[in-house]
């Protein structure tokens, strides 16, 4: 069977299973989630030994240590996966929520109701915990999920999925609501991207290259996630001590995440006061600064290029520039931002209003770190990714973002 | 200049203009809409004479009379275009609406706020009134619009757009928030579909072929509209007199629209009672019935094929079949529906609940005609199309559906 046929076959099974899941009650779904969590704990030894195979293969292949670390499971991470499923069970069911409703002039009753998408395809990289997290969120929102993890995690993913499917079958839901996509080459990703009609939405999670490829090649609708060239703009009206703490936190608290700051903009009127302090503090934390002329007057700051301004470093590096005013900051952000998160540090209300209105990103943050753009921090309880596109969902995506809606129109013989 | 460069240039101008429009107040936008309406009336003579050129060209080229009719403007249609703009001015501004808001445990204030998409591309066929309607809806929702009408309407569209741009300039908004896409070949559509980053969303309105091509080729996110193979299912528990009225209305009240019924399903227990009446009534209205074995026992019913079951006839034709029960109807609909609108005629509550829950279409209608799936009927005040996809918007799209959202996060020095 060709890769395309194999993928279409599992997608067809997912579609059929999704019909049952779409009308399952919350009680049934929650029971399945709890059973999946228990099963993951019970199968801990088997999952960890499958994971050890993946880790050994990765190490033998010379995979960098930070990637191997993402791949590695231990008791703690396994427990966190199980707890994640239990947390999702505790969240309200988005399916069935009435979004709008009214009675029309002619007496027709109109309701717009949340319904599942149907079949969701997840394409992701090394972390095997995404396998359980994505399955849990999709299931709670009534969607069958097709999981296409990286081949480096194939043994782990197979063990996790097999365990969850066993628990599903025991809970009375079709086990095909959670399936691995067969095939380890790019052909299977391609087949998934062409399965329009069988798959309702694709969510790629991973590096910028993966996401761009899916966005460009997919005929299945895509929710673009996660590339973040996040800016912090320090205005002339800022509390500079607060600004320093926010810049440091946004850049250094965790560097490998999409909501870390990658670019710093400073109003020219406070450049003399702020630059020495921020350069010293960032360098003290080991941050390499790619700076414009004003920044480059300081030791160890390297000259910035447009590429640096556009870069998502995901490392202890930052681009930095002095701007004439808030309009200069807005223009710079329009030119270089990926539309994830931009922060302003300022006390002047008119400046803050202007920045919030003019900056068109998934999140605009006032006097706080960019690191808060996160489903957990926002109180969503679960997050499947952070959308940086404008269609359907923008920003952290929780359970409601994993649904569509339909109109239910009720009459008593109404005709036009 | 190549077609691609020409399209990217207008798209770039639209992007720049959209920055001004995005933060314009409702008062400014409404004043512009009213000025555009007045200008269309004042320029009536010029627009009608441009339209006469298009009509003459179409007639000389042997265009079918029904297409020429769609192309033709007269005083009444022009007045309706102006009134449409005034109606949109009267609708609430979706931009700035707070969708959710809360204060997080750490004191951060979180708001999810409606914002414009930015730049919307409309690709549409013969009707020149879409030019004014789409411009009005996009403008009110804060979006710059790129209009790619059909070449058959080029003189009309040019005159309408020129008139509206003049009114915009006089109202203090950048006239580039409304632009025609240059070029009349498919190359300009292609360039629009590749303008990711400059165009935020494409909305194709027209025949199934056009829509499919845009969905498959576009790297810009697309909202799929309008193909409707709508079903009416007559249950065993139906009031058959009501069912007859609904079937007739759904099929014959207007045949060229996407919410007209194209398929009829009848529960076997009422087939003997209902088929003679419905066949006679439909045939009396001139409807050709493509029927299964039970229907084909009646005179002048032609045998149905799977293609007929899947067809959107947009004419006095209907496919028809007897099904064993509501589950049979649901299965049939899953197999053949385009996911636009499906109706059930029934009195039994459990059957109705099952149909509403299991049928996954943009609209599910109980005891009423499929013809009610419409922004006007739903009370939206304006409609830019009917989405048949599950991402972002589903069903009739009014002003709120022409927006995205962003999160605004306000703190006082918050760090993680």
UniProtKB/TrEMBL annotation, chains A, B:
UniProt pathway annotation: Amino-acid biosynthesis; L-proline biosynthesis; L-glutamate 5-semialdehyde from L-glutamate: step 2/2
Domain Aldehyde dehydrogenase as annotated: residue spans: 3-314
Subcellular location per the Swiss-Prot or TrEMBL entry: Cytoplasm
EC number: 1.2.1.41
CDD domains named among the record's database cross-references: ALDH_F18-19_ProA-GPR
Coiled-coil features, chain-numbered ranges: none
Catalysed reactions, as listed in the record: L-glutamate 5-semialdehyde + phosphate + NADP(+) = L-glutamyl 5-phosphate + NADPH + H(+)
Pfam families, sorted: Aldedh (PF00171)
Family matches, as NCBIfam families: PRK00197.1, proA
HAMAP family: ProA
Family named by the database record: Belongs to the gamma-glutamyl phosphate reductase family.
Protein task: Catalyzes the NADPH-dependent reduction of L-glutamate 5-phosphate into L-glutamate 5-semialdehyde and phosphate. The product spontaneously undergoes cyclization to form 1-pyrroline-5-carboxylate.
Name this protein carries in UniProt: Gamma-glutamyl phosphate reductase
